[in-house]
Design goal:
The chain is 44% helix and 19% strand. With 336 residues, the protein is α/β, with parallel strands linked by helices. It has 2 domains: 140 residues, 3-Layer(aba) Sandwich (D-Maltodextrin-Binding Protein, domain 2); 150 residues, D-Maltodextrin-Binding Protein, domain 2. The longest helix has 22 residues. It is elongated, with a radius of gyration of 22 Å. The protein starts with a helix and ends with a helix.
Amino acid sequence: MKTIFKVAVVLACVLSFAQAEAADKLNGAGATFPYPVYSAWAFDYNKATGVQINYQSIGSGGGIRQITERTVDFGASDAPLPPEQLAKSKLLQFPAVIGGVVPVVNIAGVKPGEMRLDSDTLSKLFLGEIKYWDDNKIKSLNPNLKLSHNEITVVHRSDGSGTTAVFTEYLNGVSPDWRKKVGAGTAVQWPVGIGGKGNEGVANYTQRTANSIGYVEFAYAEQNKLTYTLLKNSAGTFVKPSFDAFADAADTGTFDPQKHFYLWLVNAPGRDSWPIAGATFILLAQEKTDANKKVVKFYDWAFRNGDSKAKELTYVPLPKSLKDKIRAYWKANGLQ
């Protein structure tokens, strides 16, 4: 009898420990776009609270799928889901941070910020209609660059990607040819090029492949010392990707909690706005109230304590007015 009692006590202790461990851990998956800032926030949050945030940067498509299947505590997507899709999947959505997608090139002798591109040239590059770096359209934008007759290799995402969604949403809006031939989405049928998995994969392929062009979230361009381009915005300004340029684009948008904050920031007006900016979003299952409260607690902490880290990584923190709207949204949905 004593032996049975001891076994029961040990089992109860093990179960209690397992429950405590589970309570101190959250699992999320999705967009690679915000991975640098989410991982930095998670590290600091763990130091402050002891709670472990496990975030897998598998791409927005994977994040949407996993939260829809309820295999993670939260999903993350750079492509905002429209209200009707959220209702169908019984999901909630709010933005977490804002950043920018940038074209990056690997051309001998060309330094970051030296090459100029406009929307027409960029779309033709990714359509495969401009095949060499000394094409007249590129040379006319860059009369001071020495461009050789080298064949261009296009690098794109191979996985379901919110970065791709932001990039193709931009091209879809500025190029009728792109809209007709390719369209927009987390995954598209690319006319040309090689695919890399995640922002990491595209950065790696572009870095290793001479005469290539790809697109990545700006933090990946900075971390990997990639050669980003200038891009002509809707006001006609050739803009350098930067914190201020992303912030200018963000200032033009109005996030509506009644629409679960659904909003694209591409091709924003403004003299200094970066044209391929976007928010990245957190997705929660409506019925997972306990887990959701823990996820919300993490992001509330990040909203209060993580702005400096976001800026350090060239992401734009949400303005206070938007954070207040998000907190009201959490409260209205029983999450805070």
